[in-house]
Amino acid sequence: MQTFSKQTIGYGIAAIIAILANSALVIIKEENPAVKAFMKQLLYHHWIAHGVAVLLVFLVLGFILTRMARPSGARWLTPSLVAASALGALGIVALFLLE
Amino acid sequence: MREFLLMVHPTTGALAIFCAIWCIVEVLNSSEQNRGRTRLAALSSMWLMVATYIAGGYWYVVYYAADKAVILKSSWPFAHTFFMEAKEHAFFITLILSIFLAIIARSEDFVRNRSARVLAVWVALMVILSAFAAEGAGSLVAMGVRIGLTGGGN
User: Fold this and answer.
1) How far is CA B5 from CA A52, B9, B60, in A?
2) A12 to chain B: which residues are within 8 Å by CB?
3) pTM of the model
């Protein structure tokens, strides 16, 4: 059986979560000006805070999940990542198209 | 300096796309001989995308406000309200995928593992597609500024 490494599984799950978290954070901050203002206050510009938060979710979660993961077939990984990326991108496009 | 910075990020973005295409070619022709090249292609794509993030982000945070004001007063306000807003946030998906591509290339054996080859090709394709979309959105933002300054587009 062909297996993925611990790193691929750990960072793959982290990528799925970070991509969906990115879109969720866009929707939350665009719908709540107080959240956007808080992010701006935190790191000078809301976009800087947004990027740092998303990258931290990916890198920290990937680091932790890599240590917890075992090499496995994980046939769900590729379709899940593709679906999460498509859903994340479509969510962002839909939000700004409908605003 | 401002114009230089404005040109740097689409250039590094385009080079990151080329490296992702190069990575696909290496993965689809995996052998014992091209392991190093595959990793180099994925790593180059990742670092070029990081450079795009830093250069584009610096320009966006420091200089974009003036362009935004011009676009919003033009007949093409959607160049900011849709294209720039979507691009600046969807870019994080591209960045995460390009970092993940480098992690896959570093930790997987593409010669023996078909699943890893399929995953790497999908991730690289999504990097290419999303980065091309960002390049296109960027050109529409530039057109929005031009229309705002020249009064065209009516």
Assistant:
1) 21, 7, 10
2) 100, 119
3) 0.95
